[in-house]
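Predict structure. Chain length: 198.
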Amino acid sequence: MPSAPLPPPRDPALPYRVCLVCLGNICRSPMAETVLRDGLARAGLDGAVEVDSAGTGDWHVGAPMNPSARAALARRGYDGSAHRARQYERSWLARHDLLLAMDASNLATLRRLAGAADGARIRLFAEVAGGDGDIPDPYGGSAADFDHVLDLLAAATPLIVDRLAQLLDPPAPHGSGAAGPSGPAVPGASPSDPGAGG
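Prediction complete.
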């Protein structure tokens, strides 16, 4: 089970805002954004949670998703064609309830950017899904590498959706209780070479 609860909404009157962050915002984070949006929609939470993505680096600002990432999504029925890469800006911190970093390096970069005040709102994607380690960077890799990343994201998404659902609509305290997240935890993965990917 994840070790810490999700941070509460900054403003309960607004949708809960989640930003997924990797290095270049052309591979991992836009793939995760696409899959998480779909999972939220299937759970009826697309109006309660808003999802976007960004990168900590500026190499690919304005560029579309990496073709291999887009192809991996397309093989499973997702459309990543509308994505354009962005670099995360300090001024955005106040509008996001939760930032999910794809790896420890990006987690550290975001926490340096945020300082102590918002540190609890910046978490590892895999940790929130009940796993550990990094989501490996497939940039420059094979189609199988991108498919592996998508497998990890797809396994994590129902668990993250479940946690968001419990945060926004917690079960009654004296009822039978909601079942804990089920399904496979995201396996730990060795940190990848940072490169300039996503």
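Summary: The two ends are 27 Å apart (CA to CA).
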